[in-house]
Amino acid sequence: MKIGVCVVKLRFPGNGSLKGKRRILKSLLARASNKFNISIAEVEDQELWQVSTVGFSCVGNEAFFVNQVLTTVVSFLERSREDAELLDYEIEIMDAL
To answer: Over the stretch 24-81, which tens digit does the pLDDT of each residue have?
Structure first.
């Protein structure tokens, strides 16, 4: 079994408050979770109102499948909202115990 983990850095250039960031992020994370059946959450930068670090994971039988799901989610996050800009991402795939 393979476990894939991805960390994405997002920026919200037009946002002016934590409330606005959380509204955008809540919608984005819920749609990604429902569409791709992944675990996803904000993992860093909770108190910054223009950036967020989001982590999500996927489990599968083959590394190719896991990588494909993670890169599809990254593409979804990149194009799904005009008020959220993807700055960087990192994918890691490992073997389960």
So the answer is: 889 999 999 999 999 999 999 888 889 999 999 999 999 999 999 999 999 999 888 7
Question: Among 8, 20, 21, 22, which Cα is nearest to 79's?
Answer: 8
What span, in angstroms and rounded, lies between the C-alpha atoms of 12 and 85? 6
The structural domain count of the chain equals 1
Burial of 16: CB neighbours in 10 Å, binned 0-12, 13-18, 19+: exposed
Which residue in 21, 78, 27 sits closest to 46, CA to CA? Answer: 21
| Number of CB atoms found within 10 A of residue 39's CB | 11
**CA–CA separation, 76 vs 49, rounded Å?**
22
CATH number for the domain spanning 81: value is: 3.30.70.1120
In terms of residue numbers, what domain contains 51?
A: 2-95
Residue 64 CB neighbour total at 10 angstroms: 11
